[in-house]
Write a structure and sequence with these properties.
Shape: rod-shaped
Number of helices: 2
Order of helices and strands: EEHHEEEEEEEEEE
Radius of gyration: 49 Å
CATH class of the largest domain: Mainly Beta
Strand content: 25-35%
Number of strands: 12
Structural class: alpha+beta
Helix content: 25-40%
CATH topology of the largest domain: Adenovirus Type 5 Fiber Protein (Receptor Binding Domain)
Number of domains: 3
Length: 241
């Protein structure tokens, strides 16, 4: 018998004292098996080296890292993780800032959008109204708007007369603006003459009043300018929060 036993992995011959090995069978067979396995090992090593080179090229080199501990893989990974967290924080802040800006733009749009339009009633004390061509417009909150148009009538007292107009404006506190122009009949049968500017006082419930010193029997006309009224003190933020 050429060999009694074989190796467990590659089946190479192992002999006992009574075996009679043969060159053609035992030795040549063993060498062939060794050669085949060595070639397979070499091919695997070459493939692994190629894969490692490809991976290294994809990842980069230590020199491309900005960490000062370039030989410390943990430090390098921590640096990358920290930079990722920083980038995420910057992106999150940018989103937050954009959302805040959008909210303020939306609030500003709501503040500037005039959505309430009325032809308000007008009452008077010491003055008989014969014509009321008033109009009002305001935003939803009543913090900005306009009072405009004309009122005509005749005074019934010598002294203070008052016109009261219900408006949709809602000031944060009572305000007074110079927004009215008063004219009166000259008495010579020809025309109206200027009487000057009048203050419009607006209460927090939107009631607007105009008061002037009247002459009984004289016809007065009031013109309210078509200009924007900010129904808040200028010390306040003119955008609802």
């Amino acid at each position: 018998m050429s060999h009694t036993n074989s190796t467990p992995n590659y089946n190479l011959p192992q002999f006992v004292g009574t075996d009679k090995p043969t060159w053609l069978n035992d030795v040549n067979g063993a060498m062939s098996a060794i050669d085949t396995q060595m070639k397979a090992n070499a091919d695997s090593a070459t493939s692994a080296s190629t894969s490692a080179t490809t991976a290294n090229n994809a990842i980069g080199t230590l020199a491309s890292l900005t960490t000062t501990a370039k030989t410390d893989l943990v430090s390098a990974i921590n640096e990358v993780d920290s930079n990722a967290d920083t980038a995420s924080g910057v992106a999150s802040n940018a989103v937050s800032t954009a959302n805040q800006a959008n909210a303020k733009v939306t609030a500003l749009e709501g503040y500037l959008d005039l959505v309430t339009f009325t032809n308000p009633t007008a009452t008077a004390s010491g003055y008989n109204i014969s014509r009321n061509n008033m109009a009002c417009a305001s935003n939803l909150a009543g913090t900005m708007g306009k009072i405009y148009g004309e009122i005509r009538g005749t005074a019934s007292v010598n002294g203070n007369a008052t016109i009261t107009i219900a408006t949709p404006l809602r000031p944060t506190s009572a305000i007074s603006i110079n927004g009215g122009i008063m004219t009166f009949w000259s008495g010579d049968g020809n025309n109206f003459v200027p009487g000057g500017m009048l203050a419009i006082n607006i209460a927090t419930d939107g009631t607007a009043t105009v008061t002037w010193s009247a002459s009984s029997g004289r016809e007065y006309r009031f013109f309210f300018m078509n200009s924007v009224i900010f129904a808040q003190n200028f010390g306040d933020t003119p955008i609802p929060e």
